[in-house]
Design a protein that fits this description.
Layout lengths: L5 E7 L7 H9 L7 E5 L5 H14 L5 E9 L6 H16 L5 E6 L9 E6 L16 H6 L6 H19 L26 H9 L8 E3 L10 E3 L1 H5 L4 H95 L9 H8 L11 H60 L7 H5 L1
Antiparallel strand pairs: 1-3, 2-4, 3-5, 4-5, 6-7
Helix pairs in contact: 1-2, 3-5, 8-10
């Protein structure tokens, strides 16, 4: 199974003894490791690589950082050649192939179940400038246009390179640089058990844990602090500690499966109740809308009837006024020659809009006022009806908003049930699914 493991540290003249960088090259190429070795910009032989590194240390400044050393766990799913290509591509992408590098892969013998690569980078290009510049501050890295967090950068590049290699080779396994908590995985992490610890567990009596005096600086022989190992390991070896963690994880996994099952049943019941209530509310809402529409239609019909009634009344008033005008004219122009009286001739000639002729200004003005009043009444009724429709539409929108608010409250209630159950947060669309 592919796992993520990347350890980085530096070797410098200020904190390490002379020849430490070259000694590290000799260690990772020791004969017992049966290492596969590659290099660029420096010798690949065990002795020649050490001599080259010792020479670089001799000509460098007094407090210079000599090398950056990496150790990465290789995916067991990849073949030996695919692992070689993965490490080579990772270093070339990281350094842009501008500075010397050296790597040794251990996957034989006791490392057959733990394939890993030791990487050494001499962070100086041909002109003497740094490429990775791991010791630079975040402010200086930002000025140079480099990733601000150097450690996060090298970890991200390794994750991307390894996952790409796994994908190309047709494997579904992937690695993730994030912690179990960041991945939302409820599992206790185990500690690393190296070959020495395994040898002790299988072949040697378990040592007794006791405090140890150590020095922070290799150049100082006097111990500067005490490490209280009994308080740290509780008298357990690494294998025993991991066995306890595996037991706790198994118990937690069983408990989580039970809680997940109960949560699914509870969620199913809640959503059944919610859908039933939603269906009832939808039916009631449709019935209410139907009644509102029928009421509006009835108001519309009543409004049209009122308009027709007013039109009929105005028509009757017009006819009555015309009859009164006719009686007035008959009583005032008896014995008058109609041909010589244009007002009388116009009235008896037609009862249409021609009575508004300029020869009869008073009578035409009265008819125009009556007709204008009738139009104003009709427009007023239409305006009131339109305003009523708008008011009803706003009421419907407000009711729908209240219903949406009720649905949101139900979702919040369901969320509180999940939180009380200690379950992970679920998005609304995931819960609805």
């Amino acid at each position: 199974m592919a796992i993520y493991s990347l350890n980085y540290s530096s070797v410098g003249k200020a904190k390490h003894a002379a020849g430490t960088a070259g000694a590290h090259l000799r260690y990772i190429t020791r004969p017992g490791a049966e290492a596969y070795v590659e290099s660029s910009g420096m010798p690949s032989g065990r002795a020649s690589a050490k001599r080259w590194m010792d020479e670089q240390e001799r000509i460098s400044r007094q407090n210079e950082s000599m090398i950056g050393k990496f150790m990465v766990a290789l995916p067991k799913e990849l073949s030996g050649e695919e692992q070689n290509v993965l490490v080579r591509n990772y270093i070339e992408e990281l350094t842009e192939n501008k500075c010397p590098w050296f790597f040794a892969i251990h996957r034989e013998g006791k490392d057959s179940n733990n394939p890993h690569a030791h990487i050494v980078i001499r962070d100086r290009d041909a002109s003497g400038k740094r490429v990775l510049d791991m010791s630079a501050s975040k402010k200086d890295r930002q000025k140079k246009g480099m990733p601000i967090d150097a450690m996060e950068h090298i970890r991200t590049v390794w994750e991307t390179s390894a996952n790409k290699a796994l994908q190309v080779s047709g494997h579904n396994a992937r690695i993730d640089r994030r912690s179990l908590k960041a991945q939302d995985i409820d599992r206790m992490p185990q500690i690393h058990v190296g070959p020495n610890a395994q040898h002790i567990d299988h072949n040697v009596q378990s040592p007794v844990s006791k405090p140890k005096e150590v020095a922070n600086d290799v150049r100082v022989s006097k111990p500067s602090r005490i490490i209280n190992y009994p308080e740290i390991d509780k008298g357990l070896s690494r294998s025993q500690y991991n066995a306890q963690i595996r037991g706790a994880n198994a118990l937690n996994h069983a408990r989580q499966r039970f809680v997940t099952k109960r949560y699914r049943e509870l969620r199913k019941d809640l959503w059944s109740m919610y859908r039933a209530e939603l269906t009832d509310n939808t039916t009631t809402h449709k019935q209410s809308l139907r009644e509102q529409i029928e009421a509006i239609e009835e108001q519309k019909r009543q409004g049209l009837l009122e308009i027709k009634r007013k039109e009929a009344l105005d028509s009757d008033n017009l006819l009555l006024r015309r009859a009164n005008l006719a009686r007035y004219f008959r009583s005032t122009i008896r014995g008058v020659n109609i041909r010589e009286n244009p007002l009388a001739a116009m009235f008896f000639a037609s009862s249409e809009e021609r009575v508004s002729n300029e020869n009869t200004p008073n009578h035409g003005l009265e008819l125009r006022r009556l007709e204008q009043h009738y139009k104003q009444q009709v427009e007023a009724v239409k305006t009131q009806t339109a305003a009523h429709y708008l008011q009803k539409r706003e009421a419907i929108k407000q009711r729908r908003s209240v219903e949406r608010s009720m649905l949101e409250k139900r979702y919040v209630a369901a969320s509180s049930v999940r939180k009380r159950s200690g379950l992970p947060e679920v998005e609304h669309h995931q819960l609805a699914a």
